[in-house]
Write a sequence for this structure.
């Protein structure tokens, strides 16, 4: 359940910070201090939001891809030198 909530939260972050959605968000902030900051430093905001968008998509992809999880579990199980499973037999 916790992983689903985290994945959904990262997906919402990706949707909000998507560069194509920023043109829709800028008019919503018109007349506010945040809107004036966005308009003053528009280039920086687009770069930062683009990087955040890519990072959020990466996090969603990592949480949603079951093959990556299985491979990571296999690798940690094989290279765990202190595993008690090895000493139980």
């Amino acid at each position: 359940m916790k992983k689903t909530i985290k994945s959904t939260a990262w997906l919402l972050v990706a949707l909000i910070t998507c560069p194509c959605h920023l043109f829709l968000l800028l008019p919503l902030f018109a007349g506010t201090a945040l809107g004036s900051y966005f308009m003053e430093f528009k280039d920086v905001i687009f770069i930062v939001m683009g990087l955040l968008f890519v990072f959020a998509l990466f996090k969603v992809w990592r949480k949603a891809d079951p093959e990556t999880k299985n491979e990571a579990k296999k690798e940690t199980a094989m290279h765990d030198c202190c595993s008690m499973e090895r000493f139980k037999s």
In short: The chain has a mean pLDDT of 78.
